[in-house]
Amino acid sequence: MKIVVFAGGQGTRLWPLSRKKSPKQFEKIVGEKSTLQLAVDRLLPDFSINDIYIATSEPYVPIVLEQLPTIDPHHVIGEPSMRDVGPAVGLMAGILNREFSDEPMAILWSDHLVKNEVLFRRLLFIAAGFVQQHPKKIVFIAQKPRFPSENLGWIEYGKVVSVEDGVSLHQLMNFQYRPDKNTAGEYYKSGKHAWNLGYFVTTPSFLWGLYQQYEPNLHADLSRIVHAWQTAEFQDVFHSIYPKVEKIHFDNAILEKLSTADGLVISENIEWSDIGAWEALKEALQETQEQNVTRGKVLLTDTRDSLVYNFTDQMVVTIDLDDFLVVNTSDVVMVCKKSSVPKIKKLVESLSGTEYDKLT
């Protein structure tokens, strides 16, 4: 199986740690390795580094190669322009279709935390085995919900289609991105909804065919790039065409049009967390909601349910804080309520083009 790990986002929800020059996936958020390194490490016990590809942005290619010194440089594809997830996934499907058209491929992301790594790898193998036998299917690997999240995508599943090695594969029913509070509560109680992680296994030929069927213009543009893959003209063609391709999310390009008959869902507890935002990171690392999550030199007094991350040699002291986020870097100190995280992205966007642009 080939595995594509996407590592190209800018991660504004983890500002001020995550910046344009070094986004969240390259930072040491959990422990002493970046989330990209953790994403690859959790695969390596059972998968070969030679089967792993990294899709990123061109400016980040040197960082990827530095953090993953054993990866084949030809397996690191740096997009010359950010055109959203739709073209990014399509490009990788097209490239892998050149050589491995009917070999299962997995799509994964670099800014997540998976605590049950053994189960996660087992599910990848199960999904790959099913796809090997049914090459025109997509198997989505989802997380059993721990709470009624309004900030995550959800996936609805139906009857059991197959049982592989004790794991049920359900019929895909529907997708829902960031439901309102009441709807999220209904999903959580339903027993037939899971968090949609964006993880799936299919074959390059089937996924590439979906682009041809549902996004013919995008498919035609990407085909010209794919045709030049591994030739001397590739970079010129890539730089000429890719910045002009349609900017569209993968959900809008493919998933919203995908026949439910072609999709299956595995819903298991792999102890997954999206650590792309500070409040999500706290939820992932805390044992109880009241617990504080800290990093670096901090001293907390009468503080509860807060995340305090210090990336400097200064001491950070908090007194009487409840439900707060405090992040201290060499040039920015951010203090806000956990519920204010959605405002971080807007703040960072407002700094662009101003005297504070360098902080973005």
Keywords:
360 residues, alpha/beta, Spore Coat Polysaccharide Biosynthesis Protein SpsA, Chain A, five-stranded mixed β-barrel, four-stranded mixed sheet, 11 helices
Topology at a glance:
Layout: E1 2-6, H1 35-41, E2 52-57, H2 61-67, E3 76-79, H3 85-100, E4 105-109, E5 112-114, H4 117-133, E6 138-143, E7 153-164, E8 167-177, H5 181-190, E9 193-202, H6 204-214, H7 216-227, H8 234-241, H9 250-253, E10 263-268, E11 272-274, H10 278-285, E12 293-295, E13 298-301, E14 307-310, E15 316-319, E16 324-328, E17 333-337, H11 342-351
Parallel strand pairs: 1-2, 1-4, 2-3, 6-10, 12-14, 13-15, 14-16
Antiparallel strand pairs: 4-9, 5-11, 6-9, 7-8, 7-9, 8-10, 16-17
Helix pairs in contact: 3-6, 3-7, 6-7, 7-8
Offer a quick outline of the entry:
This protein is 31% helix and 27% strand. With 360 residues, the chain is α/β, with parallel strands linked by helices.
What does this structure look like?
- This protein is of the alpha/beta class and 360 residues long.
- The protein has helices at 35-41, 61-67, 85-100, 117-133, 181-190, 204-214, 216-227, 234-241, 250-253, 278-285, 342-351, and strands at 2-6, 52-57, 76-79, 105-109, 112-114, 138-143, 153-164, 167-177, 193-202, 263-268, 272-274, 293-295, 298-301, 307-310, 316-319, 324-328, 333-337.
- Helix 3 crosses helix 6 (204-214), helix 3 (85-100) packs across helix 7 (216-227) and helix 6 crosses helix 7.
- It is globular and about 60 Å long.
- The mean pLDDT is 95.
